[in-house]
Amino acid sequence: MLTLGIAVYNKGTAAYGAVSVLLLIFGFIWYINAQKSVDVLDGSWRRLMVYVWVGVLGSYGLLLIAPSSFPDGHGLSYLFGAMLLAVANDSGALFTGRRFGRHPLNARLSPNKTREGLIGGTVVTLLVAYSSCR
Fold this sequence. Notes:
2 domains
């Protein structure tokens, strides 16, 4: 995943294909040389999910700050803006849900999340986005 981040920062989106193919090749070599019998499909699926979740999505953050993507430096502003809105949403949902939360959003998946928290997080996010664009 470090290889993907460095390659995307230096070469742009063209690096995704090459690094993904290398991941597949070395992953199969790893399973062929395994000391004990392993389920190749199950292990490959898990490795692929971690690669996409951490590597690919994380490398988009590096792509935003890469000089080749935004030579004028606006990519860093976009990255910080996305982080600010994520924090605003989480904080708004937490405090609104704790104060006014009565109706569970989905009790089976997450018993502490409420509809009121969802609405509060959305409202706070929209207010922060609006105030930062002015």
